[in-house]
Design a protein that fits this description.
Layout: H1 2-16, E1 36-40, H2 42-45, H3 54-58, H4 61-69, E2 93-98, E3 107-112, H5 127-130, E4 135-137, H6 156-161, H7 170-173, E5 181-185, H8 188-196, H9 214-228, E6 234-238
Parallel strand pairs: 1-4, 1-5, 5-6
Antiparallel strand pairs: 2-3
Length: 245
């Protein structure tokens, strides 16, 4: 009985010992996150489910980083937000029951949203009313596109957020939002279009499917990186992940 009594006291004692762990306050180290700029293409912009919509932008990796940076002195991170969640300029993929030509019964699969799209205000330039933007990700862009004058005339996403949309190069627009820290993720679309089309680059209509020449990739990437670091800003750079790793 005495042993049981001692054992009971020991158990009660251990149960009463609640650890008092104080979470360590976040530290920024040597980085200055007061003005964060994200440069890149579709992944940076927040493309999800094959389209561009509000929830995708709000859950983009730059938006998550911008929120985290607020804990260590980060400033307001602005994005060129679209007005709704149906998708623009095409409907986003939604999960639904669909029936294919060889299916006897409907099956659960993704299909494009076919209702009214979020077109109100999406074709208008919003720089003067909402810019400059911290998220400068341009959906569909390749590295070499950043050096093309007037690129926004061919890309409606750039046309919405560029200050000098009719004539500007994307690389020059990166100088407009002052920044102390940046992320740069370019290169995915330089191989993705080629890969998704099975390497089919025949015909003038398929020039976007071609792999970017290595020398052109280097020239354009270096130009963008030199622009981002021109005023001494530090950052993180990414290119093409190893999809087989």
């Amino acid at each position: 009985m005495k042993k049981l009594y001692i054992l009971g006291l020991a158990v009660c004692g251990m149960a009463a010992c609640k650890p008092n762990i104080e979470p360590k306050a976040p530290e920024r180290g040597d980085a200055d996150f007061s003005a964060y700029l994200a440069a890149g293409s579709s992944h940076t912009a927040g493309i999800m489910d094959g389209s561009y919509y509000l929830d995708g932008q709000m859950n983009s990796y730059p938006a998550m980083l911008g929120e985290a940076f607020n804990a260590v002195g980060g400033g307001n991170f602005k994005q060129p937000l679209v007005p709704g969640n149906h998708g623009w300029p095409i409907g986003k993929l939604i999960l639904d029951y669909v029936q294919g030509p060889c299916d006897s019964t409907p099956r659960l699969a993704p299909r494009p949203f076919t209702g009214a799209l979020d077109t109100t205000g999406t074709a208008s330039n919003i720089y003067s009313s909402e810019g400059p933007f911290g998220n400068m990700g341009i959906p569909g862009s390749k590295v070499t596109d950043y050096l093309i004058p007037g690129y926004a005339m061919a890309n409606p996403f750039a046309a919405r957020m560029f200050k000098k949309a009719p004539t500007a190069r994307a690389v020059d627009e990166l100088l407009l939002p002052e920044h102390t820290f940046f992320t740069l993720w370019l290169g995915m679309n330089d191989v993705l279009d080629y890969a998704t089309m099975g390497g089919d680059t025949a015909g003038p209509s398929k020039f976007r499917n071609k792999l970017t020449e290595q020398s052109n990739f280097r020239t354009a990437y270096d130009s963008v990186l030199n622009t981002l670091t021109r005023n001494g800003a530090k950052g993180v750079v990414m290119t093409i992940p190893d999809v087989l790793d």
